[in-house]
């Protein structure tokens, strides 16, 4: 469900539909406009905001309905996810049918989900003020929290399957094993940073400023880097610097992923070999779709695929880490 919502949310933004619903009504918002007069009322409200005046001026009611349904679908999927999570969770707690530790973890995830809903509206609100665009900083945070929710649920699922299958517990190893484990953890941190910067890239439309690869125009390091001061502000607000940072993080992430991928392929067990192959395949596809997005002018379908690929890459890294915890593979085994 999180993966589906992520795709629909990305398509909503790419189709410039994220600001079509200008109010956040948790209960009343479930029912869409049902009559012609209700549609006209919602459309009249939308026309009072900057996006209509500066981007969609002259839009017809039929055209408005298209972007409305995109945003409505995104919000309804989010509400449905909340129900599918909360109702069984509360039932199992009432029946005392889950360990207390799991109940606490899931309660924390539920609160994080509520925060994510608020962040979604907080992001939309930034585009209803003076400028018809949402804050790229808020967009990045909203995206990162979605990935965090996914990672927590995916990790819990992996651990539950391990217990159900009576798999061995976590094995303690030497320095080489710890180094390999740490490399994967660094890759996961880099991936979350890349997702954050990817949100900035999307929000600033930074993918359009240098539509070339592997160089940025004629440069490896663009001369506009550091145009604003201080540097931290430039890296977060200068579209050229944001694209450069996105490329740099992509390179670092690729390097850190290749190490566990090769380890799994060369010396892992069957499942770990498969996880290593998955890492190698997914990072190759991610680099390819990222480059093609630049070269092809960020088509909607390819941008959405690139975002989904990042989520699949996160799942593959977490799966590799879970499988590695049950093997004796060490970094010493494949570095001469």
Q: Which band does the percent of strand residues land in?
A: under 5%
Total domains = 2
- Poorly predicted regions are 167-173
- What form results from the Cα inertia axes? globular
Secondary structure blueprint with pairings:
Elements: H1 2-14, H2 36-46, H3 50-54, H4 61-94, H5 100-126, H6 136-164, H7 175-204, H8 231-237, H9 239-267, H10 270-295, H11 300-324
Question: Mind explaining what this structure looks like?
Answer:
This protein has 336 residues and is mainly alpha-helical. The protein folds into 2 domains: 1-134, no CATH class; 168-336, no CATH class. 70% of the residues lie in helices and 0% in strands. It contains 11 helices and no strands. α7 runs antiparallel to α9 (239-267). It is globular, with a radius of gyration of 22 Å. The two termini are 44 Å apart. The model is unreliable at 167-173 (pLDDT under 50).
Give the tags:
336 residues, mainly alpha, 2 domains, 11 helices
Write a compact overview of the structure shown.
The chain is mostly helical. It contains 11 helices and no strands.
């Amino acid at each position: 469900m999180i993966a589906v919502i992520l795709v629909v949310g990305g398509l909503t933004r790419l189709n410039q539909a994220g600001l079509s619903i200008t109010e956040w009504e948790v209960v009343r918002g479930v029912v869409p406009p049902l009559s012609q007069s209700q549609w006209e009322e919602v459309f009249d409200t939308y026309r009072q905001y900057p996006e209509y005046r500066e981007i969609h001026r002259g839009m017809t009611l039929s055209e408005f309905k298209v972007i409305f349904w995109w945003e409505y679908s995104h919000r309804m999927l989010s509400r449905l996810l909340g129900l599918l999570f909360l109702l069984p969770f509360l039932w199992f707690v009432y029946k005392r049918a889950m360990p207390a530790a799991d109940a606490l973890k899931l309660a924390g995830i539920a609160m994080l989900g509520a925060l994510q809903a608020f962040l979604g509206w907080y992001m939309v609100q930034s585009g209803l003020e003076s400028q018809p665009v949402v804050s790229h900083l808020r967009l990045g945070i909203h995206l990162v929290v979605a990935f965090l929710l996914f990672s927590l649920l995916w990790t819990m699922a992996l651990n539950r399957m391990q217990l159900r299958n009576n798999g061995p517990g976590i094995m303690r190893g030497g320095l080489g094993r710890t180094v390999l484990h740490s490399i994967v953890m660094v890759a996961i941190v880099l991936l979350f940073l890349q997702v954050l910067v990817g949100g900035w890239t999307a929000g600033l439309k930074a993918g359009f400023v240098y539509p070339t690869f592997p160089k940025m125009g004629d440069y490896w390091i663009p001369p506009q880097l550091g145009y604003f001061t201080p540097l931290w502000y430039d890296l977060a607000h200068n579209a050229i610097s944001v694209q450069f940072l996105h490329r740099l993080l992509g390179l670092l992430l690729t390097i850190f992923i290749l190490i566990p991928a090769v380890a799994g392929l060369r010396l892992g067990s069957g499942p770990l070999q498969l996880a290593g192959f998955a890492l190698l395949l997914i990072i190759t596809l991610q680099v390819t779709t990222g480059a093609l997005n630049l070269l092809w002018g960020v088509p909607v379908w390819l941008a959405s695929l690139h975002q989904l690929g990042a989520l699949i890459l996160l799942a593959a890294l977490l799966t590799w880490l879970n499988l590695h915890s049950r093997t004796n593979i060490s970094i010493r085994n494949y570095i001469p």
